[in-house]
């Protein structure tokens, strides 16, 4: 990840398989990394929201990150999330990530205590300075309850604080404004922030984001079907719109697996995480579909729902 | 608007020019309709949010709607908003719209009183039945504070209650799921809802929405630059992505006019509406840039900001 | 309502009984007014949220308001809500209320279009000036989606724009700050806003609000048990805390009727309005428990739930 | 804290004084504990939101908690917050608290990942079982973005999972329903949850909460004026309403210190925390008014604002 070469392509946020005791299943995690690299992905995002990082103790975070870095063995860059409530706590995670050999850090705005844009800007500057690794901002209002403004990201991109943005805000209009302000789809690489990497977390509209000028995608669903996202990315790069849209539509249908639990009877997180993990189990990649902490586990009907979506997308042999 | 032919293309939500007394300036409104039709638009949405419908009395609504319908003289279809708090009040507006000769109705979910999805579904069914015109659902959570679910819109599309959707929710992922569930970009016209028209209100990502399979766009900014949106629409239809993206990027820059007031010193609505109306004044289309009700008016600096954006987009001669 | 005498006491927001055709049942409404006045209330709030004003057409609003004013025949003052989206539309309602003989107007901030505090302040000033009646601000963020600040209400109280506040924000801390800033519980009547009337809409904590220095209460539940709220008010005035708290606790239990529908299967509004109206029917005050518009109606089980709460509170003979 | 004796009275959430290097200033913290105990408080809440716990590393948390427990030396019980994103992470903090000698744990619902009521219930049960200390639920939607329902708290109170509730939700109506459901103000001690302690975090309406039947208060402002809150509590216990309301009104005015920064130029948290800490510095209790992490510090004008409020409340000699 040289600083003049922005990260591009498919960068899945790696799930964390758990064993029966709720500990990180390192053998399964190693197999998952192989599954992703074999799918052709261009990088990995460890300890992102899809890793259930919020549910992992610091010790478990270390095990997960080290397992991913060891398994990937330098084949693609590894970004490490430092998710926590505030700057001082994120700096502790940053130090652990640096020691483990991560290539870059990914940080949200502070959360829990109500904050202010000036404090968020300062937060990223401190993380960049003391974290001592390239820094990606992670815009995720659904978890963090504040939105990074176009003006803030632009300022932090232009002064070199940020190396990139992972945009999971769902605000595609704002993302478009950012891209245009940074020079537009074609001009951006020649613009004031030549190495700024814009990755969308909106896994259902990747074709649209790439059309607009995003550099890549961080798809939670990419754990299940990395090759599908890679095909979508390649089709867009080659200008083959028809193939890209077809691939995206197949992935949209596959994504329906996240509505696994009976409506209103599961949390959005436990339903989606459970679906991804059980899909990986059904595909033979991981040993168990267990989710972390106090989350509701998928029941038989929900697992059947996941299986139907895998078959529908051609990922399991149709019986 | 035959029922087997869905509405496609650019359908601007027509602004309502006001005179010094705060009444509808019908001469300016007539000129605005000409400006739009001359720009090549495929339909008009009268009494939408951009008309400041929420600020117009029933008498003023009638004047505005009748002026638009008379000016357009059947050249393109006219959709009429029936924005109000609940079904019974919307039915009063529906009757007025029908008498005025509107081609279709556009209705949000009920608002003010907290509601329930079952009540929203029933609301649309009653409007369709008693409103006696084709009905578009208007998904606008920023004003209405509830979101129409994919499942609800699909059900109401498939049973014929709804003729179309104007999606201003900003939830592009949800919109994509709807399109896929209705048959996908290519299959949709052959699917169970052949005449269902999906129009996006996300004016900054129109190329992306059309790529995904939307039928058209309802752009507030289309008041100012209807021809630009028509060029964008045509470029996408012709598969000329490069031209489409360039046009979209120009429109994104033009849209920057809505940040007209000093940050924090204007409302989002007064700033955007004031920008559109002053832009129309600067373009010679309407007489005054006044916004309705108790809204803050643009000051000199804000008007200069609007003018800069018009010049930047090539809509005013560069001085 | 002389201007030097603030409104004090219990001022129920009058429900609107409907007949089978969904029209205002004026005979039932007249009986409801008698029920309230006989209960000892100190004023009536017509066309408030509990009247389902959002669901009534302008014609129905006129019928409801005129019926209330005629039935009350000057025995207590009648405040009239002018609920609508913006200033110009509220002015139309204000004129109707003035002609009907209302004693004061009650207005929320503008809603639907996003607004700004300066625009809200201006809104109330215009309503006061052109509405030509004493004006109460109605703070109801759950419907209006903005909160009136302490500073704004204080400014509008001190300059005479507002005659009073109906606070249904649930922000008891903010209300306390307002009371203290206006001179404190005891000093307020001698302070800069001698005639400013603070009415809480928080019907479950009336004893607490009166302790803090509020002047009265606008309880939706007061439709069902006006005499209970009057006893509570009198007990607090007489300093009989024990009796006040007991009465409040009985009313809290009675209020449980609003959880009438199966959880998640009714809207909060249809459940509460249905409960109040069916309670009035069971008490013999009104003919039907029907709610307006597309709202879900109470089923048998929900009505039984209401009846149990009436019996529990001693309002129906225990069988 | 025997299990048959609920915690009652004033239980301030202890601030964390910091030195110039941003580390816990243990000498100042020891003086703060003395200030609070000397003020007559009935317990201390260590590592609550007012401790800036979200900004402290695990090492700093340990220092702060151990310092408080050592300084208090058993004179009053010490509750320890275990604030973190999820159950597994809170269990790590719980173990640290138990080893440090805390008397009880205080836990919010999980946050960051979207959750579900069933998961929240399970979360508290796991914390109670494995945390091995009495457990208080901390209802703080402004930070946690979910609200504990009356039904959930009641269930967890009745089955012994929870020993108490710290309610900072601002939902006084909901709190009243809980009190009534648990037996009412007078009956509660004889009811099904005899030892359940209800503490309000609404520091501006303590008289009202005690009137309603709350057991005590956890006031952030109690760091600055513990004796004032103790007088308020004692006045309510003695039934001296007049004195209680006067004390509460004085404290409401004192609380005005939290609006320290220029409006819009500080976060709500940095403004309030900075005000409390600078007030403690001006009172000679702590050495510096510094707040943690990337928060904005009070400037001269803001400190003068704090000082004025201290003088106004009679806490500093009037110059």
Description:
The structure is a homotetramer of 319-residue chains. Chain A is α/β, with parallel strands linked by helices. Chain A has one domain (9-240): Alpha-Beta Barrel (TIM Barrel). Helices cover 46% and strands 9% of the residues of chain A. Chain A has 13 helices and 8 strands. Chain A has helices at residues 26-38, 58-72, 87-100, 117-131, 141-144, 150-158, 172-181, 184-187, 206-212, 226-237, 241-255, 268-282, 300-312, and strands at residues 9-10, 44-46, 78-81, 104-107, 135-139, 164-167, 197-200, 216-217. In chain A, strands 1-8-7-6-5-4-3-2 form an 8-stranded parallel β-sheet, with helices on one face. In chain A, helix 4 links the parallel strand 4 and strand 5 (135-139). In chain A, helix 2 (58-72) packs parallel to helix 3. The longest helix of chain A is centred in the first third of the chain and has 15 residues, at 58-72. Chain A is globular, with a radius of gyration of 18 Å. Chains in contact: A-B, A-D, B-C, C-D. The A-D interface holds A 22, 49, 52, 54-58, 60, 83-89, 92, 110-116, 118-120, 122-123, 126, 142-145, 265-270, 292-296 and D 22, 49, 52, 54-58, 60, 83-89, 92, 110-116, 118-120, 122-123, 126, 142-145, 265-270, 292-296. Chains A, B, C, D: Belongs to the DapA family. Chains A, B, C, D: Pfam families: DHDPS. Chains A, B, C, D: It comes from Streptomyces chilikensis.
